[in-house]
Every structure is written in C-alpha cells, then in structure tokens.
C-alpha cells in the first residue's frame, strides 16, 4: 500500500528550539560565535531584543555579543570587565547592569550569559539574555526597608532563562519553580545543543510507511470488506429467523470471525494513536501529543462507532433481536476510511478497475439483501388480507402457503440469497429475463431505483473506466509520470544516492506546495489587474516587511508579479561564496547559516532578509559568503534585474528603498561590504553543519580543514570543491 513517506532528513533545530521554548518574558537574546576570540560576533538576535533596544537586526549582525553599543555613562566598567572575562573563560555569568537603548534612555537589565556546547562538549555559541527589570528595581528601592538587604528574587529570575529552555517552567506553579530552579539545573542540562539532531522518536511510535503498518492496513482493508458483506446479510436474512421465533430468541453465538473483526477494529484505534502522519507541510510528525490531537479531530469518532462490540451481548446472555442487528449497520461507516485510502491505489489502473468491480459487486449484494427483506415483509403483511399477492410472493420464493396463513418452510436461506442476488444483478446490468419480477408496489419502487442505479453503475464501470481514471486521477497520474521520469533520469546518469535524495525531496516538496500547478502558466490568460491582486495575496508575507511600507500600491503590485518561491533541503547551498548574486531572498520558514571560510557569520530564521544593498548600477555583484540550509527552508526571492526595472518605474520609492534596505538586510552578501569586522582571525571555527546532514559520523565542533580523512567532493556541474 504505497504512502507518502514525508521529509525525514535530520535537521539542525537549535534555532527552532530556542524560539519555541522562549516565551514573551525571556525573548530578548542574542547568539554570539564563541569560536572568534575576543570579538564573539553576533550571529543571531531575537525580535524581542530588537524591540527592547530599538536597533534593527541588520545593524547588530557581526557586532560583539558584549553589546558595547548599549553602554553609557552609567554602565559599570567592573561589570563589563567581568562579562568579558566570563566570555573568555567560557563560563556562565549573571549580573544586573544599566544599559542604554538606541534612543538614549537607560534601563536596568538582568543579563545572563550561557555557553552553548556541541556534541563534543566544545563551546560554540554564547546565549546572552537581556531582561528589562527597571520596574522591579523601582519596587525594590521603594520596599527596601521591608525586604531587607538581601533580595534573592532577581537572582532566581536570572536562572529562569535557562530553566525556560528546559520546557518545565510552564508545567509547575510559578512560585514553586523559582525555589526549585537550582536543583533542576543540577540534575539535567536544559540548554539545547548546536548540532544536527536525529529525529527523536519513541520506540512505541509506528511509522506510517513501515512494513508492519502496510501489512496492518491490508488486514484492516479485508476486515472492512468482510463487515460490508456480513452486516447487511445478517440484518436481512438472519433477522427473519429471529422474528419467526417471536423476536426475542437469540440466534447462534457470533462466529470467531465476527469477534476477530471487532478486536481488529479496537486494536486499530489504539495503533492510530501511536502512528505517525504527514503534516500539510510535508514533514513527518512523531510527537505523541500532535498525533493524538490529529486523530481525535479526524477519524476517531467514525472508528469508535464502527468498533462498538455488539457481539458482547451474547457473553452476558442478552437476547438479540432485530433492532440490535440494525444497530450493527453503523459499522458500514468504516467504508469512509476505505474511501480515504483509495488514492493510494490510483496510480495502478488494474487495481482501480478491480476496486470498481468490487464496488459494483458489493452494491449488488446490498440490493439482494434489501430485495429479500422487502419480499419477506410483504408476505407477512399481506398473507392474511390479500390471498393473490401472498400466492404470487410465495410462488416466487417457493414458500408453502396453501392456507394463506403461514410463511414457514420454503427454500433454504442459501437458495433465497442466490435468487435475490440473481434479480439484483439482472436489474443492475439491465439484462434481466423477467423470470424473477416485482409484484407489489414496494418491490416495483425498489426495482425502479435498482435499475436507475444499475444504469449509472453500468456506465461508470463498463463504459467509461478509462475516461474516469484519467479525469479523476489526472493530477496524480502526472505526479507519478514525473516521478518515473525523474527516477529514469537518475538511473540513466547513475547519480549518487545523496543527489538522488536531494532531487526527490525537492521535487516532492515543490509538488506538495503547488500540486504540480504552474502558477505563471495558469494566470497568464487573466487580466493584469486580477493577476496582480492574486500575486499580492500569495506574497503578502514578504510585502508586509517594513522595507515596503512606504511603497505605493502600484509599486507593490509590480513587485508581487516578480516574486518567486524556492526550497532548500538540509545541507543545500542557496548561495556559494564568489557567485554572482541574482536575487534578494526572504526566509519564509526554516533555518539557514551564513558561512565564510568555515566560520558561521550569521544564523538566519523565519522573517530574515539577505541580499545586497547595491541595486542602482548594472554590475555583477559577487557574494562574500555562502548560505546553507540547516533545516527544510521555504524561500521567496526577487530577482535583482526585475527589482531594478520596478524601481525605475517608481523613482521616489527607489531612493527610500536603497536607504532602508541597508538596515533591513539581516546579512549583506555584497563583496566588499564594510562591516565592523573586516577580517576574522584564523581560528577553530564553527563547523559546516550541513556537511553532516546525511553522514552521522561527521560530528559538530570539528574544523573541516583539519579532517585528515576527509576526501574533497566535487560539485557535479561546476567541478568546484564542496
């Protein structure tokens, strides 16, 4: 049973972990590169830090994480010296210090420096947290006489930053957590590591694409067909025997297969609570809580109703009547689950045809059961009042009715079912000979409905199978065609496994985003006004950046038409150092790192903008660093050529754009761009995380230039060393 595996490559989720576990009170932090001695440049700063200090992110990158730009006349020099010493010694440091915002206003800051290590225990980053405690300071001074000299509360709060990273702060009472922070810190390391993290999966979580789950799905499929066949049969044929016994006598105990099916459905519910699924973004979800919520909000109610153990009534010696058999028809809801999985077979024409034929046969089975049930009901209701109708019905089913008072005896249940199925199939296929016909009004109405349904089913199954497959599964057929072409290309050119995986993941992710629809081709026949409105809606996240606030609506519409989307898998290079810069890139999701000579210059996250500030001249812009994906990244970009053309149409905004982009760029990739740090010292550097994405043996904290066993790899097209 083919299923979509989802994206399962290991990712560096350090930035996502920091962003997720920091709440609003501890979101003011910067990350400094611990491998660049004495400077410790900022490689990432949070939005909360920018709001607190008033600086833009582009102004802070590559400045020292000591934050000298926040110092002022009241800043304590001894404390700053201790901070520098703590960084040099790579140890934790906490203090309260007066700092200054960009506007010049001072504030009391609770500062906490935390070293972050990699898998080898080497300090690679510094997490420097800032919290505005000016109000607390004012309260402390006001209540100094009541509280006393020593007030331990600020110190406890300084440790809450790391405790927040451990994910436990929200689970306990705030008062208790403050008293237990030190003990928790001593028992566990709450600080996330800067490394390529393998997928954390409990051993009790099943993979939805695993061999066991595939076999289980086939077993549940067979059980579903069994239910669809036996439930209508028991309701219509077996219920007659119960009614003849007075409506209170129980039939024979359920068969082993009935009990086994009920057990399978119950076990299936339990397994669904522990089975991964693919999210809308294409990622495989392993989190137990997310799996639980997803299942509860989707198919749990249907599965619960279908798994009700009605056959347990026999275990308690409860008589089973006709109503109980009618209740068991709710198990047919399980067929809805079957419809959900039919698309897994859509790529196989033979399987689709088999399923359609099985559906036709199942419908005929249901019609036969209803036909027999109507006949028996008509005999019982007319045998005492209408001798002619009773005689016709009894003659048709060969039931003795000489006195017109009884309907007992007659053919066996098997013979009655075969006769009913013969009539149902002859009516559905419109090839009946009339030897079994309708006599009462109820039977005639049912026969009319059967013929109408038969005409439709005959056309669907026997007349237009090919057309229906092409119409219903054209998009999926196109997907599998392109997938086959891609696999043939890989096989013919003998591409290595690494490139094969990158190509397949890129194709699958791109398809999941646009479903194989070429937006440009689709919208080319629409009016320009409508195309611009659609493009603005599709790219509204990028156009809402402060960089475009002063742009007119006409300018925004023109920009929206030249915005494109891109995707990077973990380890993919978006840009290489020395390449010609072709566009400005906006990170929609995921994490990336900016590298130069194996040194991490910046870590990019959602909402970051990278590119160049030189847009007025028609010249080739060389890049000064590499940009590599740490996780699966979705990007939007504007080509420099198209951007220049739009800015030429709006010269007033062009001047503002060129001025503001210098501050809005998270990192300027233009070669020769003047930064505070002109040249980084040649030291042990942060490793290229992405080089270890598909090779677990490559650990973090190892300078790639020092690996004696590393064999240089060549780019397949350019021949450059990777």
UniProtKB/TrEMBL annotation:
One CC-aspect GO term: plasma membrane
Start and end residues of each PAS domain: 42-90
Pfam families from the UniProt entry: cNMP_binding, Ion_trans, PAS_9
Molecular function GO terms recorded: voltage-gated potassium channel activity
Domain Cyclic nucleotide-binding: 547-664
InterPro entries the UniProt entry points to: cNMP-bd_dom, cNMP-bd_dom_sf, Ion_trans_dom, K_chnl_volt-dep_EAG/ELK/ERG, K_chnl_volt-dep_ELK, KCNH_animal-type, PAC, PAS
Keyword Methyltransferase: no
Keyword annotations of the record: Glycoprotein, Ion channel, Ion transport, Membrane, Potassium, Potassium channel, Potassium transport, Transmembrane, Transmembrane helix, Transport, Voltage-gated channel
Transmembrane segments: 304-327, 348-374, 445-469
Biological process according to GO: regulation of membrane potential
Lipid bilayer topology: Multi-pass membrane protein
PAC domain: residues covered: 93-145
Catalytic activities: K(+)(in) = K(+)(out)
The keyword Disulfide bond belongs to this UniProt entry's keyword annotation: no
Cellular compartment(s): Membrane
Main localization category: membrane
UniProt family annotation: Belongs to the potassium channel family. H (Eag) (TC 1.A.1.20) subfamily. Kv12.3/KCNH4 sub-subfamily.
Role description: Pore-forming (alpha) subunit of a voltage-gated delayed rectifier. Activates at more negative voltages, exhibits fast prepulse-independent activation kinetics and deactivates much more slowly, but shows no inactivation.
Subunit structure: The potassium channel is probably composed of a homo- or heterotetrameric complex of pore-forming alpha subunits that can associate with modulating beta subunits.
Protein name, per record: Voltage-gated delayed rectifier potassium channel KCNH4
Native species: Oreochromis aureus (Israeli tilapia)
